[in-house]
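Question: I have long wanted to understand how a fold can be written as C-alpha cells. Here is the record:
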Amino acid sequence: MITDGNSKQSILLSSILRGISSITFLFLLIEFFDELNYSVGNAALPALRTDLGLSYVQVGLLLGVPGIVNTFIEPVLMLLGDTRFRKHIMLGGGVAIAISLIVIATTQSFALALVGFVIAFPASGAFVSLSQATLMDLNPTREPQMMARWTLSGSLANLIGPLILAAGFAFGLGWRWAYLGLAAMCLILVGLTWLRYIPMHHALSASRPAALPGINLLRGLWDFLRNPRLMRWMILLPVSDLLLDVLTGYLALYFTDVIGLNVAQASLMMSVLMGAGLVSNIVLIPLLDRYSGRKLVRLSAAVTGVLYAAWLLAPWLWAKIVLIILVKLTTLGWYEVLQGEAFGEVPGRSGTVMAVNSIIGLLSGGVAFLIGWVAARAGLQSALWILLAGPICLILFVPKYHPKTLVV
C-alpha cells in the first residue's frame, strides 16, 4: 500500500512537472505577465497622472495614441509571424516591452511616458499576441476553449496586480518600482521563450501551413480583409472591448475623480473588480463545453447593458460598487468567444488573423482618446456613456446560429 501511495505521488508529481514545463504553460505565463502589466498600469494611472501633472486630454493621449500608432506597426509584425521569423519577432518584442517599462518607470515628463506607452503596444503584439496565436495553432477546433484558459490566466494576474500596487503604496514605495519589477519579469520570460523555441517550432510544423513569402502574405491579408465572416468578428472585438479594456483603463480615475476614493482605495477596488472577472472566467470554461458561445455573448450583452446604464445613473456609493462588480461578472466570454471564432474562420493562419486584428484595433485607440477628450469638456461621468455602444452592438450583430446551420 505504501508503495502504491508513493507511486501515485510520483505520477502526480511527474504530471505536474510536465505541465509546468510545457509550451502551453509558458504561453499562459506570458499572458499572466501581460495582464499583470496591464492591471498594474491601470491602478497606477492616478498616481502617474498626479506625479506628471497630466490633464484628461493627456491621459486620453496616453491611452489612445499608442493604439493608433500600433495600427501601422503591429500588422507587419503579425504577418511576419506566419513566416520562419516568428521566434525572432517574439523575442524582440519581449525585449522591447522591458525597455518600455524601464522608460515609463524613470520618466519625469508626459512626452517620455508617451514614448514608453507607444513602444509597449507593438512590442506586446509581437511577444504576447504571437504567443496566443501559436497556442491557437496548437489546438485547432478548440480555439474558444483555449481562449478561455488564456483569459483565466490573465484574470489571475488582473486580481494580483492592483493588490501588489496597493501594498506598495501602503509601504510608501510609489508606483515606479512596480514597472521595474515587471521589466525584470519580462526578461526572464524572454529567456524561457528562447530556450523553448525548438520544441515549439516542431509542434507547429504539423498544424500550420508552410510560411508564405512576401507578396503572398500581403495578398492573404487583403483576402482576409474582404472576408465578411471573418471581418464580422474582427470588428466586434474592439466593439466588445469598450466595456472591457477601454472601461477598465478609466475606472481607477473614475474612482478617484468622480467617486472620491484615494489612490490606495482605488487600487483595492480595481483588485475586487479583477476578482469578479476571474470568477467570470472560471465559470466560462465549463459553460463553453455545454452551450453555444454566441448565445452566451448575446445574453450577457443584454444583461450587462442594463447593469452598466444603472451603474452610471446610481447616486449612491454602495450601489455603484455593487453594480460595477456585476458588470465585470456579466461580460461573460466576449473576448474569448469572438477571438476564438475569428481564429476558427481561417485555421492555421493565426499570424494574419492577428494582423487584421491590429488594423481594426484602430477603433479602440480612437475611442479611448475620444473618452478623454469628452471628459475634459463634459466630465468623465458623461464621457463613459459612449461605452454603452458596446453591448448594444453585440446584441444586434453577433449571429444566433453557426452559418453551417443557418445563414444570418
